[in-house]
Amino acid sequence: MNYDDDDECDCVGFPILGEPAPDFEAVTTHGKMKLSDLKGKWVVLFSHPADFTPVCTTEFIAFTKAHDEFKALNTQLIGLSIDSVHSHLAWVMNVKEKMGVEIPFPIIADLDMNVASMYGMIHPGQSSTAAVRAVFFIDDKGILRAMIYYPLSNGRYIPEVIRLIKALQTTDKAGVATPANWQPGDNVVVPAPLTTEAAKVRLSEGYECKDWYLCFKKL
């Protein structure tokens, strides 16, 4: 997507699900980081509008409280905003001092908007200088699997981020899909048959079927 010269933002577009996540090397609160160096781990890359803002602070506290659960899922959290590393460090120390919470994951300093533009985090209808609340789910092979966008005004629901990681990992492990409102332990969806013959035998395969195209099973 292109914008007129009068616009402050020249965003390059959005990444595509099922394709390699755009690689980058960036300065973070934990030192320089290259996304491709994290292959072998799942990554949740999430952006926030700015340091020292109320909703963002609540989100970082919530992500921190869930950090051990993400770690158990072999998932690396990475935050980002269009702020300097010095601003990030001051904010991290402020959150620790005032809220008693030590943020354990890196935060990308993206003053040049390089990563934000690469991932379509800048939406001029919201702001031309601040990232929206985007979340990108990158698998252990570096493939972008899901993304969610929230406006500046509303914080994310962290259990949904965790639930989607678990759903994606279940899909990969068992070759199944997950239905609406799925939670770990619930029945999963068996892939629909792709031929007339397979459709004919589907109902006799021992699944819990509503019809030939909608069948469930327990893992």
TrEMBL record:
EC number: 1.11.1.24
PROSITE patterns (alphabetical): THIOREDOXIN_2
Catalyzed chemical reaction(s): a hydroperoxide + [thioredoxin]-dithiol = an alcohol + [thioredoxin]-disulfide + H2O
Signal sequence range: none
GO terms, biological process: cell redox homeostasis; cellular response to stress; hydrogen peroxide catabolic process; response to oxidative stress
GO MF annotations, alphabetized: thioredoxin peroxidase activity
Note: The active site is a conserved redox-active cysteine residue, the peroxidatic cysteine (C(P)), which makes the nucleophilic attack on the peroxide substrate. The peroxide oxidizes the C(P)-SH to cysteine sulfenic acid (C(P)-SOH), which then reacts with another cysteine residue, the resolving cysteine (C(R)), to form a disulfide bridge. The disulfide is subsequently reduced by an appropriate electron donor to complete the catalytic cycle.
Stored PANTHER family: THIOREDOXIN PEROXIDASE, THIOREDOXIN-DEPENDENT PEROXIDE REDUCTASE, MITOCHONDRIAL
Role: Thiol-specific peroxidase that catalyzes the reduction of hydrogen peroxide and organic hydroperoxides to water and alcohols, respectively. Plays a role in cell protection against oxidative stress by detoxifying peroxides.
Name of this chain's protein: Peroxiredoxin
